Every structure is written in C-alpha cells, then in structure tokens.
Amino acid sequence: MSTHKRHLTRRRVLGASAIGVAATGAAVAGGTGLLTSASAATFGYKDDGTNYVIDTGASLVFKVSKSTGDITSLAYKGKEYEGYGGKHSHVESGLGASTVTIKQSGSTVLVKVVHGAITQWYAARSGQNNVYVWTNKADASFTATRYIVRLKPGIFPNEGSDTWIEASDSVIEAGDVWKRSDGTTHSKHYSGKRVIDYDHVGFTTGSVGLWVVRSNHEKASGGPFYRSLLRHSNEGGAALYEILHYNQAQTEAQRFGLQGPYVLAFTDGGTPSSSLFHANLDTSWVDGLGITGWVGAAGRGKVAGVGLKGMDAKYAYTVGFANADAQYWAKAAAGTGAFSCKGMLPGTYTLTVFKGELAVHTASVKVTAGSTTSLHSLTITGDPSTASTLWRLGDWDGTPGGFKNAQLMTYAHPSDARATKWTGNVTIGSGSEAASFPAYVWKDVNDGVLVYFKLTAAQAAAAHTLRVGVTDAFLNGRPRVSINDWVSAIPSAPTQPNTRSLTTGSYRGNNHTFTFNVPSSAWKTDTSQYNILKLNIVSGSTGSAYLSPGTSFDCIDLLA
C-alpha cells in the first residue's frame, strides 16, 4: 500500500518539517548569474550512488537523496549546515520512498521528487547560492503542507522567543511550550509575525546568514494575518519553515496545487537580497522547465483600485483576494487607499477590505490573464466604529490591540512572567480602560471580568444594544453577559479554529460580534450608581487554566 495514503497524526505533523532556499549576498543574490570562469566550470551535478550532488558554481553544494528526496547536505564555503537528530530537510515529516529524477537545462539544475499526492521540486541556478523550492500537493492525504530545513546545532545563536534550552527549561504545555527559570516562555510557535509582516526568516552569525525567503503563499490558507511557525532552535539543532497549511489557527480550508518558489538563501551574514522577495523575483527562467502546475507571468492578471473611501486614518488597510484556489493581498496606500495586486491566477475572487484585521467591506472581482482589472473607488460600508456609542472599550480593528497583554501574546505564553495580572476590573471614564481590560478571558483563569459605567437619566430610560467583538476562541468559549440583575441568554458558538491558538501566539480566528439587546429595566435608575457589566465565559467543553474555554476580544461597546 502506498505510504502517501496514510493520514499523518497532528503530533507527527507538528514534530518534523522544514523549508529550504538559499540566497547569497552582493554579486549573485540578485539572480543575475554573473560568474567567474572558475565558478562556471564547476556548475552542474553528479551521482554519488546515494545522492544527487548539485554544485551551484558559487559557494554552495547541496545533496538530494535519490531515495527520499530529502536535502541531505547543505555545504556553504566547505562547511556543513544541514541535519540534526538523524533527520534531514524535507517536505511534511519526510516523504519516505520516492521517485527522484534530475536534469540540467542550460544554467539550471532541476530535481523532481514524486511521492503520491506530493511532487517536490528543487532548482539550482548557475552562480547562485540559492535553492529554489516548489511543493505541489494534490489532495488532503497529508494533513499539513510545510517544508522544514534542519540545521546542525551550535552554529547559529540560540536566541529569541522561538528558541529554548531543553536541558534547563521546563515543558509547561503540550510538549512544545517551555518556561525558563526567569519566568519567560519559549516555543517554536512564538514568531510574533503575521505572513504580511515578513519576506524572509532565518539565522545569522554575522559572517554567515541562512534564510528562508517565503513564497507568495497563493496556495496557502489563512490570509495575510496568519501566524505560524517560522523557525526554532535549541541545543539539539535549529530549523527554518515554510508553512503553507498547518492545521493551527486555520480559518479556511486548505488549497491544493503548486506553491512556490520559496528560496533557501545563504549570505555573508546580511539579510537576503530583496530581488529574491516574491514581489520582486524574476521567474521567467522557470517557464521552460516543465514544472507541473507552473503558471508564468503571461498567464496571470492584475487588479488595481483607485482608492478607498471612508478610511480611518489611525489604521492601516489591506485589500485581500480569495477563492477556493488562491489567495492574495495588497496594502492600501495611506490617505488615498489606492491598491494594486499583480501576479494573480485567473478567476473570480472575493475582495475584502480590512481595517487593521477586521473585514469592513466585500465585493467580487474577476481576474483575466494578461490584463488589469481596474476598480473605481470603493466605499467602506461595514465599519462598526461609525456607530454612535455611550462608551467603547478598545476599537473595532479585528485584533485585541490596546488591551492588557495583547502584544505580548504573539510571542509568549499567557503564564509568562512579563504578563500583567490577567484579573482586574475596568471603570469607564477612568482614563485607562482598554489597558486595564484583559485581551483574553478564560473560564478557569479570569472569568467574570467586571465593567463599571454610569448612565444619565435619559440614557437609563431606554433600551440599548451591547456589542462584544471577539477575534478567536478555544473550546467554544464565548461571552455571556449580565448587567446588574439582568442576565443574557447563552449565545451560540461561532465557528472558530479548533486549535489552542490563544496559547501558541495567535489571536487570529474568525472575527465575530455578539449582540445583546439590553432592556431599559436592566439599568440603575439612580444616576449616581454604577451599572455593572459582568462577562462570563460559557462553553459545553471543559479544560483547565489557560487551556480552559476562552476567547480573545476585539472591542466592546454600548450603543447610544
């Protein structure tokens, strides 16, 4: 029975994958392929019986296993960087027995690895210290889509929130979250970055840098604000990742087809050349290689928008495009909101305008190969911040930003010593309301947060709507509210990722607004008295501490 048909368990998937792609500095990082006559003479490959050995004609020689398609060696300037724990660099958790072939086409060597639903490609270009990588996944027989580059221990500094020391740090959650003696927490999950925030991730010694330059993620899932593994390091080794679908904090179904190139780049210590970034990369040389599923520039289209009306100048705006086959996004220009997104596969997309990370406008747009779809100004119609309120905690931007501990939670565990105490109540009008309100509330940690507020006689004489916006949840945790003696019904649980996002560096789920219609009889009639709003987490599931049902908040307000 073909091994690719077995479904990988979540633990197996989370324990072993990586990505590779290399970029040199100065002369060759730009992809020009300019060579000295000496380096040109060495470009090519040979068969050592076990591996295909590819010499880039520069400073990088790498090997690909003829039996598994793993990268088994990355030798830069004669020094080996690849491998730890007896494992090599590969897609998923390693494909196992595969059909591996190689060919040279002029100044490019291309390796093809076939294993059931996955076809993996590696390319080297003459004179460049880069490995270009593609992954083509046909179906869901593998539960994740990632590449992991495994690196030898002790070469790069073991520093950062995504590094740990197994000999002295203590495991505090699920085998992959660690706490140091100083109370700081560390995990491979704690990158602190959204996809839109980075073009590359890696390590440097100051004299040698090793980087993964990410692809455009058109076949990934989760959109521009998705967070996932980028790298990790401990005394046993280090790793770099290209995550395309990971079953962590996922808000949409995975996509299939060819993804890439992503690039493993060696440099002389600096960051990789911007010419390798997906938005700048010249891929015309790929067109004739015969990579299955490859669509060159001629087969792609573009969307350009004049601008956005109704923007809030305090926030950045992003325009996203998504359908079942692909996803893209573009940053809107400050002031005008003009945007442009190129290199899109033909098709009809849902266009979504995000204020921060909150969807505030949607439309449909069709992309045609070889042409530009021009859009007139779009008027934002779905920003909840435009509603008149009696008071508001935070703001509607799709994130817990501004609330207590929100920023820390993208690169630390909630139990981290740097976190401010999760308990504590809030008084409207105190001047520090948002900073006092916890970004997350868990049933077993800080349930029952109180918000104190006063109403005028006229305000107390009328019914009002209370809105509670959340960004994500764990174990179907959602807020039930009471105001003084009035208690709301238990709301239905919205669809959210089923993973422990709140403790693994991501508040990003499906933004949802709970609406509570509060009758006038609920308010205090004495205007000198505080009304007391209480938020409790309800769920049909149970858990303990930071793995109990919980939710992350976007905004809470009481409409006028």
Mean pLDDT equals: 92
What is the fold named in CATH at topology level of the largest domain?
Answer: Beta-galactosidase, Chain A, domain 5
CATH top level of the largest domain?
Mainly Beta
Global outline: globular
CATH architecture assignment name of the largest domain:
Distorted Sandwich
The domain tally reads: 3
Largest sheet: 7 strands, antiparallel
By helix and strand content, what is the structural category? mainly beta
Helical fraction: under 10%
The total of beta strands comes to 38
Strand order of the largest sheet: 7-8-9-10-19-16-15
Calculate the terminal CA-CA distance, rounded to whole Å.
65 Å
Radius of gyration: 26 Å
The fraction of residues assigned to DSSP E strands is 35-45%
Number of helices: 5
**Segments where pLDDT lies below 50 for 5+ residues?**
1-41
Written overview of the protein:
This protein is mainly beta and 560 residues long. It has three domains: 3-276, Beta-galactosidase, Chain A, domain 5 (Distorted Sandwich), CATH 2.70.98; 297-382, Sandwich (Immunoglobulin-like); 389-559, Jelly Rolls (Sandwich). Helix content is 4%, strand content 39%. It contains five helices and 38 strands. The protein has a seven-stranded antiparallel beta sheet with strand order 7-8-9-10-19-16-15, with no helix packed on it. The protein has a five-stranded antiparallel beta sheet with strand order 1-2-3-4-5, with no helix packed on it. Strands 29, 31, 33, 36 and 38 form a five-stranded antiparallel beta sheet that branches. Strand 13 (177-179) and strand 14 form a beta hairpin. The chain is globular, with a radius of gyration of 26 Å. Residues 1-41 have low confidence and may be disordered.
